[in-house]
Structures are given as C-alpha cells and as structure tokens.
Amino acid sequence: MRPSDAAEISAVMAANALVVPRGAGHSTAGQAQARDGVVVDMTVLNTVHEIRPGHVTVDAGARWSEVLRATLPRGLTPPVLTDYLELTVGGTLSVGGLGGASHHHGAQTDNVLALDVVTPTGSLVTCTPDHNREVFDAVLGGRGRNGIIVTAMLRLVPAPETVQWHRLHYGTTSELVADQRLLVRAGSFDYVEGQLKIRDGQRVRELEAVSFTSASLDGLRFEESDTQVTSYWDFVNRLAAGEPVIRAAGLWDSPHPWCNVLLPDHAVESTLRHLESEGPELYSDFGLILAYPLLRDRISRLELPDSELVFLVAALRYAPEDATAMQAANEVLVQKALQAGGTLYLEPL
Ligand SMILES: Cc1cc2nc3c(=O)[nH]c(=O)nc-3n(C[C@H](O)[C@H](O)[C@H](O)COP(=O)(O)OP(=O)(O)OC[C@H]3O[C@@H](n4cnc5c(N)ncnc54)[C@H](O)[C@@H]3O)c2cc1C
Fold first, then answer.
1. Measured at the alpha carbon of residue 46, what is the angle toward residues 40 and 50, in degrees to the nearest 5?
2. Of the residues 128, 158, 188, which one is the last residue of a structural domain?
3. Is residue 1 situated within a structural domain?
4. Which of 10, 112, 226, 305 measures 20 to 30 Å from 251, CA to CA?
5. Predicted local distance difference test score (pLDDT) of residue 29
6. Which residues form the domain of 129?
7. Do 149 and 60 contact (CB within 8 A), yes or no?
8. Which pLDDT does position 348 carry in this prediction?
9. Does 193 participate in catalysis according to the annotation?
10. Alpha-carbon span 107 to 345, nearest angstrom
C-alpha cells in the first residue's frame, strides 16, 4: 500500500490483522515483509517539514540523506547518523540507529523529541517522553510491530563545514581495540569507528577517527595513518560511492546475511579474532567486519550488555548465490555473543 497521508495508514491498520511498514527495505531478514498481510511503503511520505535551530520535523519515509540536504544549508545536522544515508528515518528509529558519534550522543532513538504514530488499532497519536510516553517507548526500537511512525521531530546540532578524517592502520586487533577504548573514554574525537577486512589479499585493520575541529593522535599505537580534510557532507555521505561499485559487481541485490551483535568489552577481542579466522569465502570481495565502540550510559533504548564499554560488532557478508554457509557462520557468532553476555542488534536470521 502506498499511503497519501496518515489517515489512510490509520484506515488500513484498523482493517487488517497484519500491517508492516517498510522504509528503504534494507533490513536483511524480512523485517519489512508481511506474510498474508499489508506492507505500507513509507517512502512516499518523505517531506522534510519545519526546520528550527534545535530540531526538524520530517516524514518517517524520508531518507537521512534527504533530511541532511534540507538541514545542512542551515548549518544543522542530526547528531547521530548511520554510515549509509539511504536508510529511512522510520527504518532506523525502529531499530536504534548507531553510528560513529554514538559514544557521545547515543543512538538515533535517543535524539527524538516527538513522534506522530499510528497505533496497531489505527489511532493517530502524538507522543513525546512526557506525553503518551508508553507509545513513544514502544515504537522507538519497536521493529514496526508496535505502531507506524508517520512523522518524527528530530534533534539538530550545529554541523561543521569541514572535518579532519583520520584512517589509522594497525598491525594487531588488540592495538586497534585498545586505541578505540582510549579514544571513546577521552571523548576527544567526534566520530570513532573501526573495521577489519581483506583487500588485495592483505589484512586491513582500520580505525576511523574524525574530528570537527582538531584533535591529537599522540599516544596512539597505529602503524600508518592517512589524514584528509573534507567537507562534512562528503564525510557523512562516504558510503555513497560504494553503491555503484557493488551494483556493478552484481552483489547489490544478492542476499546480504549481515549479523550485528552488541558485545561487552571483555568479549570483543576474542570475537573479532574468531571472525578474522573465518574463511574469506564467508565475506566475498566486499565483505568486512565492523567494530564500533560505544559507551553504555549514552544509550537508553537498546538492550545492551552489562558493561561500561560496549562494542557493536557486525559481520557484513555478501553472498553471490547461496547464503547457507554465511547464515551458519552468523549462527555461531550469535551463540558466541549470547554466551559472552552480548545482545542482538539486528535480527540476522
Ligand atoms: C548499507 C547499510 C548500512 C547500514 N549502516 C548502519 C549503521 O551505520 N548503523 C545502524 O544502526 N544501522 C545500519 N544499517 C542497518 C539499518 O539501520 C537497518 O537495517 C534499518 O532498519 C534499515 O532502514 P530501512 O529504511 O531500510 O528500513 P526497512 O528495512 O524498510 O525496515 C526496517 C524495520 O523498520 C520498520 N519500519 C520501517 N519504517 C517504519 C516506520 N515508519 N515506523 C515504524 N517502523 C518502521 C520495518 O517494519 C522493519 O521492521 C545499515 C544498513 C545498510 C543496508
């Protein structure tokens, strides 16, 4: 169903047992599908409404790139962005929305001021942390099953014009993780992320540290560094260039058995070593492993491990055809994470 307004969503919710909203449809395990039910394509409702100094109101079907194209000319940005901007506001608010700035600002769900929601019975409700709070709490992180977000009022902060973007390369995973711990505890960089991958037969262990002003790399343990000054937009939109390359390789529409877990600090190194020991055939040419350090006390709406420092660890696998072996590998990752006191971020299976 392609709704023209919230009233049409209310009517379809009231009349059908299973109604599932779909944003950009990037979730990997059918979360935006409805067997024998109705799928509501939210991308047709994508207007960016009022922009104020501290907030913007947007339709939930807007992609984050569309939000930024409207707010950046006013010098404003949402404080937390996912790496890929072609995800919808409703799609990421229904799972959390974590990024390199989450160690400062939490998840995207921690930066929402108000929502208009169609509840499962078809009522259109405005909710905030102080008003209709049960709806607000249920729908943020609710996987689209506790109501449909129609509009969201999102917090905005000043956007820098340029950023210093450091890519630091490490000889060992332990050194990379040690520096991530150091950086997020110090809070000196605006973005901290990390990834492990094999490119041209070489293992790459990379920490991305981004500063909106300028911050020191003194005392870090990297072997090589690559620093560039780039516009804020080019930095936050950095994954866009990869899309045509992956499409050209025929891997955009093939299965992506991606697996995202949240690990307590004590389990991150052993889990990354396990993932690094998996065969390259479990990733294909474009696959990689992400490791994002987070501070537990900044994130309020996700089920997190009981640990001051938490790592989002993701195995991003691209299956040219059969995904069975990759799904089996994800099952092992999930079991390891749960045994170590970790939690699931996005359901992988
Ligand atoms: C290339 C890529 C990079 C990514 N990077 C990150 C990242 O950096 N950080 C991160 O946290 N995640 C990341 N993700 C994961 C992503 O946040 C989730 O998969 C997200 O749910 C996808 O958004 P979508 O618009 O495609 O939603 P869909 O896949 O369409 O829907 C996802 C879920 O949201 C529900 N939903 C959709 N719209 C609404 C709505 N309006 N109201 C209520 N529920 C709704 C759906 O029912 C479904 O359960 C990435 C995914 C991809 C493909």
1. 135
2. 158
3. no
4. 226
5. 85
6. 6-158
7. yes
8. 66
9. yes
10. 12
Give me ligand 1 centre to Cα 33, in Å: 13
Is the domain of 145 the same as that of 279?
no
Closest CA to 336 of 256, 289, 255, 269: 269
Phi and psi at residue 68, in whole multiples of 5°? -65, -40
Q: 130-144: per-residue pLDDT in tens?
A: 999 999 999 999 999
SS3 55: strand
Asked if 106 and 149 sit in the same domain, the reply is: yes
Entry field: residues in the chain:
349
- Please list the residues that pair with 316 across neighbouring strands: 288
Query: Which residues lie with the beta carbon below 6 Å from any ligand 1 atom?
Result: 20-27, 31-32, 42, 60, 82-84, 87-88, 90-92, 94-99, 143-144, 148-149, 346
Domain boundary among 139, 158, 177: 158
How far, rounded to the nearest angstrom, does the alpha carbon of residue 132 sit from its chain's CA centroid?
26
Burial of 141 (0-12, 13-18, 19+ CB in 10 A): middle
Of 59, 116, 179, 193, which is the active-site residue? 193
What is the full DSSP assignment across 300-339? -SS---SSSEEEEEEEE---SS--HHHHHHHHHHHHHHHH
Kindly report the average pLDDT of the chain as a whole number.
96
On the question of pLDDT at 63 being above 90, the answer is yes
Query: Domain tally for the chain?
Result: 2
Please tell me whether residues 229 and 136 are part of one structural domain.
no
Mean pLDDT of 322-335: 95
